[in-house]
Amino acid sequence: MDIPSPEELVSKIETFIARHEMAETRFGRDAVGDPNVLSDLRAGQRLPGLIKLRRIASFMARKDAEKAGADHAATDMTGAQARSSGKISEVSAPAGAA
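-> structure tokens emitted (98 positions)
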């Protein structure tokens, strides 16, 4: 496991919460049970230990995977809906139509 600097960790978390449209306190509460973890990191008050770093990394990886799965499912559904509506050019015309 690569151990990021406090600045790198803050940057990664900020990027993550922006991508997931998540409040800072929700991130901290869900990731490590501490709603102030990001504000504490920014202030240099507490640097997380390895266990907390692993929990943060695991939480972000899990949420990213869930988001990717949800995005993929939405894309698949959109394609299926378009095919069933006949709006995709590959859909053949009904028999007898010409």
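The helical segments are 6-19, 24-32, 37-43, 50-85.
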